[in-house]
Design a protein that fits this description.
Strands 4-3-2-1-9-8-7-6-5 form a nine-stranded antiparallel sheet, covered by helices on one side. The chain has a single domain (24-257), classed as Calycin beta-barrel core domain (Lipocalin, Beta Barrel). It is an alpha+beta fold. It is globular, with a radius of gyration of 21 Å. It has four helices and nine strands.
């Protein structure tokens, strides 16, 4: 038996290496040899409702959760704020006011986003509120802070076939989901984008905020390429919906008068 295991182990390792090498060869690449992340992507999960595993409720469908270990390591003194957020979630959540949702939440909002990749910068265009992020891959450093930006400041580099994005300079106004999981303006996010194949991407976000959490923690999920013919980002200017009753589009006003 020992001889059989000893014989099979190198074969198993070799097959694993071959499989990984084949997967790496099959992913699309840019002219400079980097994985080509360009395209329109979207999640298929309920993380925007709650990043943790949850049952169905009046707030929405059930979800399996995206947090590794299914636990957010809040500091004891931060739990009171989390409870207050949950109690007032209908009005306090930035999504309710159509404010930008922050990072990483905008990645798992139930809206598609488009990646445009250049050698010195990756641009991400989001359908939600037409938000835009610039992930600088030119070796530049974060600007000096403190700066409070809704989407933070993103500086990226390639680690093998993975795009690693370091994000800092956040406001404390955004949440991770609709249940009130939150952070302070000391939030530091490290994102990792790794192509699995041409139509699937592994997304990982490691969260660090010593003001709110006792240790770093991580979310993981799959991003799916939208491959339907003629698929494109559409309009979702949610901040304008309230104003349409006062300044309606011509076709809306015409329909209302009939």
């Amino acid at each position: 038996m020992k001889n059989t295991i000893a014989t099979l182990l190198p074969v198993t390792i070799l097959l694993s290496v071959v499989a990984q090498s084949t997967a790496a060869q099959n992913i699309p690449r840019t002219s400079d040899g980097q994985p080509d992340l360009s395209g329109i992507w979207q999640v298929l999960n309920r993380a925007n409702d709650n990043v943790l595993a949850h049952s169905a409720s009046a707030d929405g469908p059930a979800g399996l959760g995206v947090v590794v270990g299914d636990e957010i390591p809040y500091r004891p003194e931060a739990l009171a704020q989390k409870a207050e957020n949950f109690a007032n979630r209908a009005t306090l959540d930035t999504e309710a006011s159509c404010y930008l949702p922050g990072v990483p939440r905008i990645t798992y909002m139930p809206f598609p986003f488009q990646i445009v990749q250049l050698p010195n910068m990756v641009t991400v265009l989001y359908e939600y509120a037409h938000a835009i992020r610039y992930l600088y891959t030119n070796g530049s450093e974060h600007p000096e802070g403190p700066i409070n930006w809704w989407m933070g400041d993103s500086r990226a580099h390639w680690d093998g076939d993975t795009l690693v994005v370091d994000v800092v300079h956040f406001t404390d106004a955004t949440w991770f989901d609709r249940t009130g999981n939150y952070h302070s303006d000391a939030l530091h996010v490290v994102e990792r984008y790794s192509l699995i194949d041409s139509d699937h991407m592994q997304y990982e976000a490691t969260i660090e905020d010593p003001n709110v959490f006792t240790r770093p923690w991580t979310m993981q999920m799959t991003l799916y390429r939208r491959t339907e013919p003629n698929f494109q980002l559409l309009d979702y200017d949610c901040y304008a919906f309230e104003w349409e009753q006062y300044y309606p589009y011509p076709e809306v006003a015409e329909g209302a008068s009939q």
